[in-house]
Amino acid sequence: MSQTDHASSLEKWAKDGSVGPEAVLAATVILLRDNPNPPSGQVGTSGLEILMLKRNSKIAFGGMWVFPGGRIDPEDWHGVDEGDDLGASRRAAEREALEECGLAVDTRSMHPFSHWTPPKTTPRRFLTWFFAARAGAGEVKIDDGEIHESAWMSPAEALRRRHAGEIEIAPPTFVSLSELTAFRNVDHALEAIQARTPERFQTVIGLSDVGPVAMWHGDAGYESVDPAADGDHHRLTMNKKAGWHYARTVLP
Predict the structure, then answer these.
(1) Is residue 8 part of a domain?
(2) 9 domain residue, yes or no
(3) pTM to 2 decimal places
(4) Rounded Cα–Cα distance for residues 108 and 74 (Å)
C-alpha cells in the first residue's frame, strides 16, 4: 500500500463510518543508537539514529517502514499478571525485535514512549504500546519473510525520505519520528522519555478538502471530528498534493 493509498483508505473508512472489529493488543520498540559517523559542521543535525524495517507488502501495514513489533501472543503473558498489558507488551516487543531484526533487547531497558488507539472505523485495529530502547550490540539480521529491508536513519532523514516519496510510513510512525527529531543522541532521548508520562493517542479521522486529517486530544476539532474548527491543533494533515504535515500547538 502506497502512502497515497493509505491516506485514501483512511478517508474511505471515515466516510463509510462502519465500526471495525475488536482491537488486537500489540507492541513495538523504537531502537536507538548514536550515529557511528555523525555529520560535523552542519547546524541542526543529530547523531541519533533509529532502526527502520520495511514490511512485506502482503501482510498488515505491507510495504511500510516501521519499528520492530507486532501483536501480543499468548506466550507473552507467561509470568505476567492478568491485565498487565504493559508487561505483556514489553515481552512482545522483545520477542518481535529478535524475530524481525535479530537484535536482543532487555525488557528492563525499554521505556514506554506512547500508546496508540486507532480510529474505530479502520478494518484492522491494533492497540499498541510504543517503547524506546538503546539498541544492543549485534548485527541486524532480517528474515526476508515479514521484513524485506532495514536501515538506520535519523528521524529527520526518515521524514525527508517520506516527503520525497522514497519510503512509506503510517501516521503513528510519522508522529513518533517528528517528536524524536528534538533529541541530539540516545542519552538525550532516553533521559527525556524516562522523565515524562507516556502519552496516549486515540485517533479520530476528520475529512477536509485537502485530504483526511488525523486528530488527537487537545485539537479544537477533536470532539466534533471537524478539522475546520477554530483553535489549537494537534493533528496530522494528509494533504493529497502537498504531503503530510504534523502540527501541534497543544502542550503534551
Answers:
(1) no
(2) no
(3) 0.89
(4) 20
